[in-house]
Amino acid sequence: MERVIERQRVLSQLFHSASKAGKSTLSSTAPTPHLVLDAEGSWSFIEEMGYKSGIPLRKKLWDPLKDVVPRWDDTWDVIRVHVDSWQVLSQTYMHLTQSKWDFVSLTVDSVTESQRRCKANIKGTGPMQIQQWGMLLDSMDALIRGFRDLLFQANPLRVVTFNAETAMKDGKWRPFMQGQIRDTMPYWVDICGYLFTEMRPDGDQQVKFKRMLVGEGINDAYVTGERVQGRLPDIIDNPNISAMLAAVYPTSQELARG
Questions:
Q1: Which pLDDT does position 217 carry in this prediction?
Q2: What is the H or E stretch that residue 164 is in?
Q3: Is the pTM of this model over 0.70?
Q4: Could you tell me if residue 63 is inside a domain?
């Protein structure tokens, strides 16, 4: 079945959280076909859409340095790119701007680790020089905005998600990036959310419960915000990207392959 996408009914997102809080699992709830740029190896363990949903995700590896973009053929749901160098990221972006593809969602997991790859490529084995910090900012700025802007081309993506580590800076927990991009990136996306785990009683036991802070100013300790006009709650219980997309665009006529 061909996918039909209404122009402009798209969503860009930045999620930050502590390590192992579930960002990768959350990003697995995005609509398929899904392209994942896996810089941390966390997608090696993801086999289902979300946490223990029972909905399997069929994964296929793609090496953008050797192969052309895989076209959707109903044998896979997720294309996973193992990002072990900056060249892999830049080559993937080149493919997406020059080739035909069928992806509905794209996830960069994570932009924090991707920036480390970029930094290693720029500095080589020596220390960073002053002018190289500017190169790092420019390279990451161009790549992140480039991936985001794939939402607005002739055959657009539907969802672009950036996962990031989190760090305390100037009295707030914010996406962990080096340089000015740390402060500007939350403004480049439609949703900036902080994902966290809450323990709740369930009979005689305490169980983990996922929540995501989205509303700006709800908790000044975290950098969060949205520009979807309040179509999402300030705090989302058990967040799911496909459900968030449906909430933001309740009349959308999206049909994904499969």
A1: 85
A2: strand 159-169
A3: yes
A4: yes
